[in-house]
From TrEMBL:
UniProt entry tagged with the keyword RNA-binding: yes
Protein name: Retrotransposable element tf2 155 kDa protein type 1-like
Domain Integrase catalytic intervals: 6-168
GO MF term set: RNA binding
UniProt signal peptide: none
Keywords on record: RNA-binding
GO biological process, one term: DNA integration
Top-level taxon: Eukaryota
GO cellular component labels: nucleus
Database matches in InterPro entries: Integrase_cat-core, Retrovirus_Pol_polyprotein, RNaseH-like_sf, RNaseH_sf
Amino acid sequence: MGQLHPLLIPEGCWSVVSVDFIIELPEAHRYDVVMVVVDSVGKRAHFIPTHTTCTALSAANLYRKHVWKLHGLPDAFVSDRGPQFVAEFTLELYRLLSIKLSTSMAYHSQSDGQTEHVNQELEQYLRVFCKERQDNWDDLLPEAEFQYNNHVHSAIKYTPFMLDTGQNPRMGFEPRPLNSNKETANEFFERMKLAREEVKAALAKAKDDMAWYYD
């Protein structure tokens, strides 16, 4: 096999982002594709309904509307659609935001092992979901996204919500806490720092495993 040059280990959440597509879904309100955007560190994902005709340019506009407003710009994008897609997507996104593209912006077509695993898991999850809700799965994508982001991820041992925001969202039926001890700002900072260091270590191992396999 040829040499693999995996991504550098991301410094933080939403610093390396994968953009991929789950295609050939049952048509619902003219949608037949889900654009899946995943943070390589925290694994938080956004599911965006779109069409088979979605190009790199239209995908960039979807990213601006649904993801950029929440997380800003990453250091690098990665996609199974290859380097040309990533380059066109990135250039169009920066054009839409009226930002001059930095020469240090990274272009990658190969993903790390964990990201590939997440994408496979998401594809299986969404295909089952869309098959069961064939006529209106697009309306229910917010619920699917919430459930995915609120489950403990096997690769990181946290929910994506927890690693990204420091807490899990309220469900509306939580039991009242038995004591009123509040976490201090320093305790919160240390907890999040430890969690992200654990994830970076796991990503480093996945990177080494992928490089060994391909080399």
